[in-house]
Design brief:
The protein is of the alpha/beta class. It contains 3 helices and 5 strands. Bound molecules: S-adenosylmethionine.
Length: 118
């Protein structure tokens, strides 16, 4: 469980910093995930710069992040019907086996710049 949302107050700065990385991650991420139709959880979605890429795989996307400041910008990248959840990766509000893809992209201290697919 995280004790405090350490990315609060950094969203605008992070969004600018991360823009080129998100672009660089696009092709590898599409390659790793492949096409699909299930639900894709963007774990630690930050400002949502990967939402469009995940959407492009054909899946329904839901973003989850602990920082309401990050989610503030992610909301501008959300499309109609797409959910953004403020929550903790250690206590996910999903049943086992759902979603069927959960990339952690540069997030949660599990990865640096690589996209991990569980
Ligand atoms: C380095 S940023 C990456 C953001 C996004 N994945 C990207 O690639 O643009 C890490 C994000 O993980 C979120 N985060 C860290 N620990 C978390 C936790 N336990 N639960 C949910 N989100 C968390 C932070 O708030 C932050 O937005």
């Amino acid at each position: 469980m995280v004790s405090e949302p350490r990315y609060d107050g950094l969203a605008d700065w992070y969004d600018e910093l991360n823009a080129a990385w998100a672009q660089d991650n696009r092709a590898p991420l599409l390659d790793l995930l492949g096409p699909g139709t299930g639900l894709c959880l963007d774990l630690g979605c930050g400002t949502g710069q990967n939402l469009e890429t995940l959407r492009a795989t054909g899946r329904r996307v839901v973003g989850l992040d602990y920082s309401s400041d990050q989610l503030r910008l992610a909301n501008d990248r959300r499309v109609r019907g797409e959910a953004l959840i403020r929550g903790d990766a250690a206590a996910l509000p999903f049943a086992d086996g759902s979603p069927d893809r959960t990339p952690d992209i540069s997030g949660i201290g599990l990865a640096s710049s690589r996209a991990l697919v569980a």
